[in-house]
Amino acid sequence: MKITVDKEACIGCGTCVALAPNTFELDAEGKSEVINPNGDPEVDIKKAVEACPVGAIKIEEEPADSEAIK
Ligand code: SF4
């Protein structure tokens, strides 16, 4: 699983850090960044994705086979 944060969109509210503190951290500019994509249970990371008020967090599942890369 790959997690990305759109720092342009992130408003630094800290919700993702509160929900998955081992996965996200606020950087020096107060924007969220991924420190460890496997830091918290997937369910907590998905909660953070859903809770982000600006939809800045994206989860990309690793493609199971080449069909997924179309
Ligand atoms: Fe940024 Fe969204 Fe995390 Fe808030 S929940 S800090 S807006 S990525």
Description:
The protein has about 70 residues and is an alpha+beta fold. It has one domain (about 1-70): 2-Layer Sandwich (Alpha-Beta Plaits). It has helices at about 15-20, 40-50, and strands spanning about 1-5, 25, 30-35, 55-60. Strands 1-4 form a two-stranded antiparallel ribbon. The protein has a two-stranded antiparallel sheet with strand order 2-3. The chain starts with a strand and ends in a 10-residue tail after the last strand. About 15% of the residues are buried. The site of iron/sulfur cluster (SF4) has 14 residues, from helix 1.
Bound molecules: iron/sulfur cluster
CATH class: Alpha Beta
Distance between the termini: 18 Å
Counting H and I runs of at least 4 residues, what is the number of helices?
2
The pLDDT mean sits at 92
Characterize the quaternary organization of these chains: single chain
Q: Write out the strand line-up for the largest beta sheet, numbering strands in chain order.
A: 1-4
The total strand number stands at 4
Q: Report the helical percentage.
A: 10-25%
Low-confidence stretches: none
Q: What is the CATH fold-level name?
A: Alpha-Beta Plaits
The string of secondary-structure elements, in order, is EHEEHE
Q: What count of domains describes the coordinates?
A: 1
- CA radius of gyration is 12 Å
Assigned CATH architecture: 2-Layer Sandwich
Strand content: 15-25%
Main sheet record: 2 strands, antiparallel
What is the molecular shape?
globular
